[in-house]
Fold:
Amino acid sequence: MESQEQYPHDGEVTDEFELAGVPDAFQRLWTPHRLAYIKGGQEQVSSENNCPFCAAPSHTDEEALIVHRGKHAFVILNLFPYNAGHLLVCPYRHVPDYTEIDVEETAEIAALTQTAMRVLRKVSAPAGFNLGMNQGTAGGAGIAAHLHQHIVPRWSGDGNFLPIIAHTKAITQTLGEVRQQVADAWPAEPEPSAAETGGAQAC
Structure:
């Protein structure tokens, strides 16, 4: 009787044997859409021939959502952003692991990441950032075959129930608008490092 009062619609979705197990105090947030990344999704990118990060530089910046092209790496918008302005820094070479890039690639990826943060602060004033590389399928990489660094701008209160409950993320601008805004604000020349300017810059 108590079960029927607490869960009045159980009978509509169960058979005569009732529920398997006893209801507990936990709520469950089902995210079946994530299964695409777990089962078979990685097989879609098996080589440079079908890698979106390898294909992107052959298109125009507008078509590929590229905001900047460097010598060893480029900066591109994430097609499925966590927040508006979610950028990816990718080496041109098709390598999966951070240990496989050389010194020049490592330095440029780091420099592009710093510049991207400065540009995003200028155009959208985020309160913080999430930076990171998901390494391997077990590490959560959506495309594990091609290394990419995430730069996700964050604002206070931008995390809510929508992505989990409704499978919905509220993005306030189109990808084209964000790409143009970031590309326009990107400095024409690389910004000098502290070593090049003779020491740490004043805050």
Strands lie at 66-69, 73-77, 87-91, 128-132, 149-154. The longest helix spans residues 103-124. Residues 160-170, 192-203 have pLDDT under 50 and may be disordered.
